[in-house]
Amino acid sequence: MSGSFDFTLYGASLRSRLMLGTSQYPSPAILAEAAGASGAEILTVSLRRESARLREGQDFWRLIRLIGARVLPNTAGCYSVKEAVTTAQMAREVFNTPWVKLEVIGEADTLQPDVFGLVEAARILVEDGFEVFPYTTEDLVVAERLIEAGCRVLMPWGAPIGSGKGLNNVFGLRALRAHFPKIPLIVDAGVGLPSHAAAAMELGYDGVLLNTAVAKAGDPVAMARAFGQAIEAGRAAFLAGPMAPRDMAAPSTPVVGRAALT
Questions:
Q1: Are 113 and 121 in contact (CB under 8 A)?
Q2: Is 209 helix (H, G, I), strand (E, B) or coil?
Q3: pLDDT value of position 257
Q4: Pairing between β-strand 7-9 and β-strand 131-136 as defined by DSSP bridges
Q5: Model's pTM, two decimal places?
């Protein structure tokens, strides 16, 4: 990973632009190794999911602390404002952090965010001192409402959670980046391949959050390393200024001065 601190979220300076989820790994040891291989400095954790593991929960928290990454608790599995706010408040007590990845799910099959409940919950949590990372759609109006509610980071989905489809609406994601050039934007959900992550970074996004693509890979550690490399490559390409696409061919070898055969 790059040695420079050029990525800031709510005042925290980071080197890595990859954020990694912690569920579905074959074992805690593989999770720890994959996190290290990825270079990720932020790990997301679902309080609801891990609390359900009962006695395993304390071991899991201990592992996360040993990895040494920042913890971003999330409200995964919450379908109402009340559920999400209560879960966020519990997570703040457990992890001693004001950060929360806010999820308010509105549709069970696609796990699409309930954007109305999301804005309401974000406003409540910001007023309560939270620093909110909202899982949202690429809708520009919703983004504006979330910013007005006090969110200083937006996390639009690439595709439905766990689908691995990549960036379903490149036009919408590009428009979101253009409309909010100074707001950190993290593509969250649906990323299945390193090329998807690189594509998000090439659009000018500030980072990528993913889980299933690494956890369910044949070799999670190797895949985590590949994602870390892809995000760096995509960011470097964006900074380099990619060429504009063309409808017609353009020869890379000049024709002026070439030999004329008769």
A1: no
A2: strand
A3: 62
A4: unpaired
A5: 0.89
- The C-alpha atoms of residue 144 and residue 141 are separated, in whole angstroms, by 5
How far apart CA 91 and CA 181 sit, in angstroms, is 31
- What gap in Å lies between CA 213 and CA 254, rounded to an integer? 43
| 101 is a catalytic site residue | yes
d(C-alpha 5, C-alpha 62), whole Å = 27
Other CB atoms within 10 Å distance of the CB of residue 22: 26
pLDDT at 262: 59
Q: Are 7 and 17 in contact (CB under 8 A)?
A: yes
Of these residues, 82, 101, 165, 182, which one is catalytic?
Answer: 101
Q: How far apart are CA 86 and CA 260, in angstroms?
A: 78
Q: pLDDT tens, 10-32?
A: 999 999 999 999 999 999 999 99
Instruction: State the residue for tokens 């040891």.
Output: 29
Q: Is 163 exposed, middle or buried (0-12, 13-18, 19+ CB in 10 A)?
A: middle
Q: What H or E segment, with its residue span, contains residue 234?
A: helix 220-240
Distance CA 57, CA 77 (A): 17
pLDDT of residue 247: 83
Crossing angle of helices 28-38 and 56-67, rounded to 10°? 20
Q: Residue 146 in contact with residue 154, Cβ under 8 Å? A: yes
Question: Per-residue pLDDT tens for 190-203?
Answer: 999 999 999 999 99
What confidence tier does 6 reach under pLDDT thresholds 50, 70, 90? confident
Asked if 155 contacts 188 with a C-beta cutoff of 8 angstroms, the reply is yes
Token code pair at residue 156: 């639009």
Backbone angles phi, psi at 21, to 5 degrees: -80, 165
Describe the crossing of helices 194-202 and 220-240 by its angle, rounded to 10 degrees: 20
Q: Residue 143 has what pLDDT?
A: 98
